[in-house]
Amino acid sequence: MSREKDLAKKVALRIKRKKRVRANISGTAEKPRVSIFKSNKYISAQAINDVEGRTLAAVSSQAMGLNGNKENAAKVAAEFASKLKAAGIETVVYDRNGYLYHGVVAAFADALRENGIKL
User: Fold this and answer.
1) What is the pTM of this model?
2) Measured between alpha carbons, how far is 81 from 68 in angstroms, rounded to an integer?
3) Which CATH number fits domain 2-114: 3.10.450.50, 3.30.1330.40, 3.40.190.10, 3.30.420.100?
4) Does the N-terminal or the C-terminal CB of the chain have fewer CB atoms within 10 Å?
């Protein structure tokens, strides 16, 4: 019983952080918001224009046949950077989606920077 309560508390704290971060950032057509999601197995990201409510580009490690570790986060970010460049996007706002900025989330952001996307 305690394990379920711990998990519920962990999720509630992430949602609280997510709301706090999203209160300060939003994406536009010129500078979209890049939102990352990570599960225990996979990671995914999408570039969002919040003004129109449209997704401009998206990528998933599951679709690429990769799991969600730090090494694969760099590969997924490289693919995502190429999709962003194809859409004419060079600068983005990074939304960590309530996750702490370390591990996969930080590796993804660093790989985006290495591939020419300004955060």
Assistant:
1) 0.90
2) 17
3) 3.30.420.100
4) N
